[in-house]
Amino acid sequence: MSVLSVPSRSVHKRWWQAHKATQLLGVHLPHIAAVGLLLAYIVLAVLAYFSTLQPGHLGIRIGLRGDTPCVTWVMPAGKAWDQGARPGMAALSVDGQSLAGISEDALPTQAVTEAVLLKPTGEELPLKVTAMPFGQSPMKFSLLALGAVFALLGAAVVLRRPDLQAARVFGIFAGFASLALAVAPDSGGAGHEWALITQVMTEVGASACLVPLVVALVGESVWPRWRFVRPVPLFAGFGCILAVVYMASVFARPTWYEWIRPVLFFYMSMSVLSVVGLLAFKVDPERDLVLRHQSRLLLWGIVLSSLPFVSFTLIPEALGRSSVLPVHISILALALMPAFFAYAILQHQLLGIRRLVHKGMVYGITAFALLLIITFAFVIPLYDKVSGDRYPLLISAVIVGGIVLFFPLRRAAQWLTDNLLYRDTVGYDMFLDGMYENLVTSDNSPDAAGGIANHLAEIMHLESVLVFQGDAPGQSKLVASAGRRSQEALQHLGPQLQASAQNAENRNYVELRWESDSLILITLRSAGRYLGYLLLGPKEGGEVFVDAEKRLVVTVAPFLALAISKGQVSEELRDLNQRLVKAEEMERARVAGDLHDGPLQKAILLAMDGDAISQDEKGEIAHQLVSELREVSSRLRPAILDDLGIVPAIEWLLDNLPKRFGLVTHFSLEGLQEEDRFSPDIELALFRVSQESINNIMKHARATSVQVILSKETNAIVLEVRDNGLGFSTATGRNNGLGLSQMRQRVVQLNGSLDIHSSPGNGTRVVARIPLGS
Amino acid sequence: MESAPLPLRILIVDDHQMFREGIRRRLEQEPDITVVGEAASAEDALAKVAQANPTIVLLDIRLPKVSGIELARRLRQQWPDLKILVLTGYDFDQYVRAVARVGVSGYLLKTAPQDAVVQAIREVAAGGAVLPPSIASKVLQHYSVDSSAVRDGMMGDLTLRETEVLELIHQGIRNADIAKRLAISPRTVEAHVSSIISKLGAQSRTGAIRVALEKGLIK
Fold first, then answer.
1. What integer pLDDT is reported at residue A383 of this predicted model?
2. Is the CB of residue B174 less than 8 Å away from at least one CB of chain A?
3. A713 vs B184: CB contact, 8 Å cut-off?
4. Distance (Å) from the alpha carbon of A622 to chain B's nearest alpha carbon
């Protein structure tokens, strides 16, 4: 398993358990390593800091060759070396004192601040300690701070994942880097031998670690064999030999430095270049998404941080030229390296570390730093051009500018990182590919939701996908879940979900936090109807949702809603169908009963022979029979609707309501006459809506009055049935019964709409609006 | 010239053959009545009328496709002198009123004794109108104001809807919101408003409200 693939939180705990024995004097080894690293850094940094406070010296020693006083040793890369002094040159004066004819005893062994040498060509070479040593500049503090970052990062990583080889190598790398940076102020400026040696050794050490580190990170074997040799130890070993040879040269053979230096620089450049090569070409594009993001991040981090140093300083110097950029500037770019490592750890679980520091803190600091950089980027160029009394104005203008530019720049930076790092995050095509299956083939809502959840979990690398369905955020229940941590997510986030879902109702999405991971909650809506919501995340390995993914999810949310609602609709249809069949059967039974109880019995009486009943009685019975049959037939379909139209039909309906309900009815017409006719479909729909509404009123509303208003508008006819009854909450009672859905269906089939306005205690208004065709 | 009266020429329009035969058999017993034809549908009836030139049409309202009411209207248009006697199974007052509006000479229920039908034919032929007492009372009731379920929707001069709109205006609600609340189109609201203003003889919305308050149409 690659160390970068999704880490389990308990891995390092188990390691701690298993390595209880790995102790020294009762302390765990990783603790010792971490504390040792920090201590070494602090000691070196303090030493270097104080030695830079001492006056600098040239770094040459003087001896007698024959009678001539001459230079016996020049500290490589020291002040004198940089100004051209080499061992063997004759010395004319040292620290203002002439050396002509001086005796061996009186000879100063070391020139401190000033000397005049004689070149082999016969020219005089004056040497001087520069007035402002490098170490006394603000640069010193930058280097120390940078070193501290490396030291802290290394110590933290070693403590978090002592079980990983890569983490241990990273600890060593960070240790070397931090120590190199700790002594850098001194080795560069004052030129003490110990500092220079430490500097070179640690630089070589860091370079030597870089390759195995990246090899371990991308999950290759650290010690592969190329036929007979193992390249990585060979590389590291070569670095060690170089360092030893260099150390020897400083004291014994300063002239060796002439050729060791280019070799050293070449070595360091090669280590950086091979790491870049490894990251760029060795990472299999088919590999884990997280790994791809991590390695891409490291690649950019290493390229951006070391490119200036390698290309403008190391390579020119290896070729015997001087650095193209001032060294302190190219070195400062190295600060990007710990930043990228830290970012990769925080966002992409590099080294399998889920959390180093709280992400929010990092974001806060980064935002603040960005704001400062933006602000100062504008202050510095303007500062000289403004007269003193306008400084407050300038500063406030710059602060305002910083704030104004903050978000555009942040977005630009976000866009850039998204495009550099997350090119391969989920694409629309991938998404739609699988969605087709769920949209087209599934006709059942839980199936569709489950299919979508699985699809999303797979393509977006999510540890949890939860699909909730319901009429309102508060009433949604879980219908599908996917991902290995969905249950855990549900448990943790359950209590806050409802509030978040309500929050999300009017937005594209809301982000939720679960420990250090982020999740997004999206409202699902189809044709304006609330269907539920979708909770995505955390992503595998705690990755962040990039903007592109959020956009994708927001864009495809309607498709998801469609798929889910399609399932729901077909489920509703099935349900409706069942209820229809049942209702039809009930209606048949009722009609059969009506016919059987009244008319049939009377017809039998009439058909009987003999004098069982008198002729008068027969006449009476025949009349009753006629009126009963008329009633049955009218109830099935009122003849009056076909014969006379909608207005008389509704009137008839209201006239013939069962008396026991004691309803007072009002019927008013607006913009039409009693005898106006409409198409049979419209008339039937309007009649059934009135009939069903009035049935509902009688059944449920306990109303005392019903008002029916039929109005004709320019191109629509509107029927309104209102009562003064109990009313109901339209939010909870949307699926209230077959009658209502049939009513709606009739109106919708004619391109009309049916609205129900009601609230408890305020009666109910049913409004059907049907457009009148041209 | 013979002064013997011409026989009454009857056309029976009904979609039930049994009924047609029953009534025909009865009518043919009468010397002064000739059944000149039968029709089972409105089209059929129009053709037969044109062809047989009846004096009286016995008409059922329930007919397939075109209803008896519509047929009566067309007959009245084409042959204003033709007399129509409705013979139907329904006594709903909606039918009675609809038929009355078309202008027929009589309305009889099918359950009436056949003698009554013969009687009615003679009366209609003599220029009279026939309404059985139960039906006549329904018609009369309709013209007494409060009994029918139908109101003309008037309140004062305003319709119910207009009153409603006026009340909402009085509450300070804008037309668009009124439309939303009453589930009608904004244009309809505008139409209501201008109708209210003109009915109340006002010049503006506020004027209309003032008049309505004075008249006690709204509170």
1. 65
2. no
3. yes
4. 9
Containing A771, the helix (H) or strand (E) segment is strand A764-771
Query: Which phi and psi angles does A121 have, rounded to 5°?
Result: -75, -10
Q: Does the interface predicted TM-score (ipTM) exceed 0.90?
A: no
Tokens of A701: 């509303």
Q: Which residue of A has its CA nearest to B184?
A: A718
A542: region left, alpha or beta (phi > 0 left; psi from -120 to 50 alpha): left
Contact A646, A683 (CB under 8 A): yes
Check if B148 contacts A (Cβ < 8 Å): yes
CA distance A720 to chain B (A): 9
Helix (H, G, I), strand (E, B) or coil at A283: coil
Burial level of B40, CB count in 10 A (0-12/13-18/19+)?
middle
Cβ neighbours of B189 in A, within 8 Å: none
Most confident option among A275-279, A382-386, A611-615: A275-279
Residues pairing with A69 in the sheet: A64
Tally the C-alpha atoms within 13 A of residue A417's C-alpha that lie toward its C-beta: 18
The structure tokens listed for A749 are 């089939």
Q: Which residue of A has its CA nearest to B60?
A: A643
- Would you call B149 and A757 a contact, using CB atoms and an 8 Å cutoff? no
By C-alpha distance, the chain A residue nearest B63 is: A643
- Partner residue facing A642 (CB), from B67, B110, B161: B67
- Which pLDDT does position B170 carry in this prediction? 84
> Which two tokens mark B156?
């004062």
Q: Is residue A6's pLDDT more than 60? A: no
Nearest C-alpha of chain B: how many angstroms from A469? Answer: 29
On whether any CB of chain A is under 8 Å from the CB of B204, the answer is: no
Q: Which residues of chain A have a CB within 8 Å of the CB of B149?
A: 651, 654-655, 665-667
Chain A nearest C-alpha distance from B181 (Å): 9
In chain A, DSSP finds a helix count (H) and a strand count (E) of: 24, 19
Name which of A648, A669, A670 is nearest B98 (Cβ-Cβ): A648
Q: CA distances (Å), A5 to each of A288, A416, A456, A459, A538, in order? A: 7, 25, 19, 16, 15
pLDDT tens digit string along A497-507?
A: 888 888 887 77
Residues of chain A that touch chain B, judged by Cβ-Cβ distance less than 8 Å: 622-623, 626, 630, 639-640, 642-644, 648-649, 651-652, 654-655, 665-670, 674-675, 707, 709, 711, 713-714, 716, 718, 720, 755, 757, 765, 767, 769
pLDDT in tens, A559-605: 778 777 777 777 777 787 888 888 888 888 888 888 888 888 888 88
Beta strands in A636-763 (DSSP E): 664-670, 705-712, 716-723, 753-758
Work out the average pLDDT over A331-353. 77
Q: What's the pLDDT tens digit per position in A625-668?
A: 888 888 888 878 888 888 888 999 998 888 888 877 788 888 88
Distances A386 to A379, A493, B82 between C-alpha atoms, Å: 10, 55, 110
The pTM of this model reads 0.48
pLDDT computed for residue A426 by the predictor: 58
Taking only the tens of pLDDT, chain B with its 219 residues reads 444 567 889 999 998 888 899 889 998 888 888 899 999 888 899 999 999 889 999 999 888 888 888 899 999 889 988 999 998 888 787 888 888 888 888 888 888 888 888 989 988 888 888 888 887 887 777 666 543 444 444 445 677 778 888 888 888 888 888 888 877 788 888 888 888 888 887 788 888 888 888 877 776
Q: Which residues contact B80 (CB under 8 A, 6 or more apart)?
A: none
- Whether B112 contacts chain A with CB within 8 A: no
Contacts of A537 (CB under 8 A, 6+ apart): A462, A463, A464, A512, A514, A517, A518, A519, A520, A545
Contact list in A for residue B62 (CB cut-off 8 A) is 639, 643
